[in-house]
Specification:
The chain is mainly alpha-helical and 220 residues long. The protein folds into 2 domains: 8-69, Winged helix-like DNA-binding domain superfamily/Winged helix DNA-binding domain (Arc Repressor Mutant, subunit A, Orthogonal Bundle), CATH 1.10.10; 74-219, Four Helix Bundle (Hemerythrin (Met), subunit A) (Up-down Bundle). The chain contains 10 helices and 3 strands; from the N terminus they run αβααββααααααα. A hairpin with a 3-residue loop joins strand 2 (59-62) and strand 3. 34% of the residues are buried. Keywords: DNA-binding, Transcription, Transcription regulation.
Length: 220
């Protein structure tokens, strides 16, 4: 390996981000040769990255057929959201304890962008700001372990999150929930921040459950 070649961990991080950004979609094949060319990496390091991502549940390796992005069912997406509710509640609690004035201003700016997006019907900007808010709360919390787990499980359900963001009327429901999280963190009220996140995630879970029931009904 040359000194400039990406490590397997670095390649895994790039693939993970590509899944989060929707560049690699569920069931898409991840061809080692293509990834080697894309990342200018060795076959061994690409293979190591895919093994790591398989251990995280983002990728599944198929015997004699390579690897592909793992598709997550609605039922599993609901379970993952329940895990997120606990961990993101913890991060919000810590963020309320540790947020700085500069970070408070940034959170308020994100909240304003979300309000403007809802007012103009710009769902893409709202979805982007939504992801940014959750990411920044995790970073502000300085709770590294919880934040790493959240990032891994969020990547598994990115497709469901996109559909959720596009759900009719969903932004109007989730906007006040997000603003409540921002206000509680900026008020340095850990209990209120954790409770606000839990209410928001319960709303997410209820919407996913409603989607699951609708899918079952359509298939009946």
């Amino acid at each position: 390996m040359t000194t400039s070649e990406l490590t397997s961990a670095a390649i895994a991080a790039l693939i993970r981000q590509a899944i989060l950004d929707g560049e690699f979609v569920p069931n898409q094949r991840l061809v080692e040769a293509d990834l080697c060319e894309l990342y200018s990496a060795s076959r061994a390091n690409v293979r190591g990255a895919l093994v790591d991502l398989a251990n995280e549940g983002l990728v599944e390796r198929l015997q004699n057929r390579g690897a592909r992005v793992r598709a997550v069912s609605l039922a599993e997406a609901i379970e993952i959201s329940e895990v997120r509710m606990v961990l993101e509640g913890l991060c919000a609690y810590k963020a309320a304890e540790r947020v700085t004035p500069e970070e408070e201003a940034e959170l308020h700016e994100i909240g304003k962008a979300m309000k403007d997006a809802v007012a103009s019907g710009d769902l893409l900007t709202y979805s982007t700001s939504n992801k940014l808010l959750h990411a920044r709360v995790g970073e502000i919390s300085r709770q590294t372990t919880a934040n790493q787990i959240i990032q891994r499980v969020r990547a598994q359900i990115v497709r469901h999150q996109y559909r959720l963001a596009m759900h009719p009327g969903r932004p109007a429901v989730s906007l006040p929930e997000h603003l409540e999280i921002i206000e509680a963190i900026c008020a340095h009220d850990p209990d209120a921040a954790e409770a606000a996140v839990r209410r928001h995630m319960r709303s997410v879970i209820e919407t996913l459950q409603s989607t699951a029931r609708r899918v079952e009904g359509d298939g009946a």
